[in-house]
Amino acid sequence: MTTYAFLGALEQGFVYGLMVLGVYLTFRVLDFPDLTVDGSLPLGAAVASVAITAGHDPFLALTFAAGAGFLAGAVTGILNTKFKILHLLASILTMIALYSITIRIMGRPNLTLLGKPTVMDAVAALGLPPHLASTALFACFAAAAVAALLWFLRTEIGQTMLATGDNPQMIRSLGVDTDIVIIGSVGLSNALVALAGGLIAQNQGAADVNMGVGTIVAGLASVIIGETLFGCRTVARALVAAVAGSVLYRLAIAFALSLKIGDFSFQPSDLKLVTAVLVVLALVAPRIRKGLARCSS
Amino acid sequence: MLVLDRIVKYFHKGGVNEVLALNGVSLEVEKGDFITIIGSNGAGKSTLLTGVAGGFLPDSGRLLLDGEEITRLPEHRRAKFIGRVFQDPLLGTCASMTIEQNMALAQRRGLTRGLAAGVKAGDREFFRAQLAQIGLGLENRLHDRVGLLSGGQRQSLTMLMATMAEPRVLLLDEHTAALDPKTANHILELTERIVRERRLTTLMVTHNMNQALALGNRLIMLHRGEIILDIRGAEKENLRVQDLLARFYAIKGETFSSDKMLLV
Q1: SS3 annotation, A227-288
Q2: Cα–Cα distance measured from residue A57 to residue A124, given in angstroms and rounded to the nearest whole number
Q3: Burial class of residue A127 in the structure, from the number of CB atoms within 10 Å of its CB (0-12 exposed, 13-18 middle, 19+ buried)
Q4: CB of B78 within 8 A of CB of B51?
Q5: Partners of residue B86 in chain A, C-beta under 8 Å
Q6: Is A185 buried (19+), middle (13-18) or exposed (0-12) by CB count in 10 A?
Q7: pLDDT digits (tens, 9 = 90+) for A25-62
Q8: Chain A closest CA to B240's CA: distance in Å?
Q9: Cα(B189)–Cα(B169) distance, integer angstroms
């Protein structure tokens, strides 16, 4: 693997780390497998790109993206809690609807940001070389998100979120409306995912409606890799593990792409299969490694 | 005062499995009453408690608490007035959270929750003092996850948590049934003490007739969704298990049957 590929993987790991934190919130904290993320990632990218094209500040564009992601997640939450649609199905419905909405927002399936200001300009102004600048910026975003979530999950509201995922009957009997908690949590999760989408679009210079395909699987793979290698005994540890898992996942992919066995080498299109196999292995692994079973209970 | 006014509840209404779980149950619970509830299989004991807690909307009838109608108030809004302990010791606490986090959640029952710290440093002394009362040494384990505790320890903790924020009604749904006899006794003593000291209005479903007779100031027996016996005061104090069975036979013309009920 070249240094360039290594740095690229690091950069991707941190920016997708925001998405993985979102997946961690739904999948692990809330016990709510949420496929909305496949739609909210391109949604965030589209909203940020359109906002920048319309002349808004790139950082402000990110808050619009996060807001749009929150709404998308809240819709899934409402479908699940108020209309009693199974969480998986509810999230698939939102994901599909978001495909149309994202194209509507952009007015076409993709939108380039060539020559437009992005958040990368702010870091480049500090004098860092471009390939290091984005990595450093995304690492800061990921660290800030971990710190913010850590604080939030210790607040009164954050604690009800943990309790809703663990024992909804108990927390209802203590006066908490679990419907609201689920709607807000899935919203928060998708806000993070859309934020990642907004950053990715600015980094690669374009938003594309298809850029979200497989987001959930990559997210799950990262969460699982993280907790297998770094543990999940405390919330703090699990949050750091989620970002670390994201970085390792991207490194593993970069490694796989650089692999050559005789005439055989992986194509980028093989990665979805590789990831799916990885997730299956990791989900079956608890029988072998007890560490994982503790995380999912 | 809690009033149940002709509460009717069907399960699977209109289907082949239709069950009439509560058949016009009326009950006036006085402030400070400690009512034990017994009944045969499927009598509607748990349904009655779940109905008071707001787990379902009755098909007809009304529910009043201190003159205020609460029939349609959702479960989480009623929780403000109601403390609850379930039969399953795992249901009352969060396994993945620590003892102090669980207690902090219970402390804010019925209050709004914001962005203040979940566990406040100033509350730890209070939590320790509460835990010291139950004599299980939990006061030194505030940071332990609840999942590490035994069923009995968890049920004791739930008992504390249900009564930390003063409930206007305490609901105990066979809360000792899943425990071994020694632990069950410990929980009962704790229950008796907390209810007596704080004069809590309490409804306790039990599968143990002796328990039902020994505890509380009033006893009701349910059968097929109806209250068939309501005994209180001195009359209850002098009652024995045989008397109860005899009265059941006299009313229903059949022998009392329950695969779970302890008759001795």
Answers
A1: HHHHCCCCHHHHHHHHHHHHHHHHHHHHHHHHCEECCEECCHHHHHHHHHHHHHHHHHHHHC
A2: 16
A3: exposed
A4: no
A5: 169
A6: buried
A7: 999 999 999 999 999 999 999 999 999 999 999 999 99
A8: 35
A9: 19
- Burial of B88 per CB tally in 10 Å (0-12, 13-18, 19+): middle
Q: DSSP 3-state assignment of A154?
A: coil
Domain spanning A3-296 has what CATH number?
1.10.3470
Name the residue with tokens 């993280």. Answer: A226
Identify the sign of the CA torsion B195, B243, B179, B89.
negative
Nearest to A54 by CA among A124, A122, A111: A111
SS3 content of chain B, % helix, strand, coil (to 5): 35, 25, 40
Instruction: Report CA torsion sign: B103, B109, B113, B116.
Output: negative
Look up the ipTM and state it. 0.88
* Contact (Cβ atoms closer than 8 angstroms) between residue B146 and residue B157: yes
For residue B203, list its beta bridge partners.
Answer: B35, B171
Spatial distance between the Cα atoms of B227 and B251, rounded to a whole number of angstroms: 11
Query: pLDDT tens digits, residue range A135-175?
Result: 999 999 999 999 999 999 999 999 999 999 999 999 999 99
Question: Which residue in A157, A162, A178 is closest to B114 by CB distance?
Answer: A157
Query: In angstroms, what CA-CA distances link A230 with A236, A238, A293, B147, B156?
Result: 11, 8, 14, 21, 34
Among A86-95, B1-10, B38-47, B70-79, the range scoring the smallest mean pLDDT is B38-47
- Beta partners for residue A178, in sequence order: none
Shortest Cα distance, chain A CAs vs residue B106, angstroms: 6
- Alpha carbon of B31: minimum distance to chain A alpha carbons (Å): 21
Match 């004599």 to its residue by tokens. Answer: B135
- Tens digit of each residue's pLDDT (9 = 90 or more) over A203-239: 999 999 999 999 999 999 999 889 888 888 899 999 9
| Average pLDDT of the residues in A80-108 | 97
Contact status, residue A69 vs residue A43, Cβ threshold 8 Å = yes
Structure token digits, residue A97: 């609807």
Q: Which amino acid is at B3?
A: V
Q: How far apart are CA B190 and CA B169, in angstroms?
A: 17
Give me the residue label for tokens 């608490």: B65
**DSSP letter at B58?**
-
Asked if A160's CB is within 8 angstroms of B97's CB, the reply is no
Tokens of B56: 């379902």
Which of B96, B106, B116 is facing A174, going by the closest CB pair? B106
DSSP B188-217: HHHHHHHHHHHT--EEEE-SBHHHHHHSSS
C-alpha B224/C-alpha B21 separation (Å) is: 7
Q: Tell me which chain B residues have a C-beta less than 8 angstroms from the C-beta of A297.
A: 95-96, 147
* Structure-block tokens of residue A265: 């080498």
Q: What angle do CA B176, A294, A13 make, to 5 degrees?
A: 145
Burial A237-257 (b: 16+ CB within 10 A, else e): ebbbbbbbbbbbbbbbbbebb
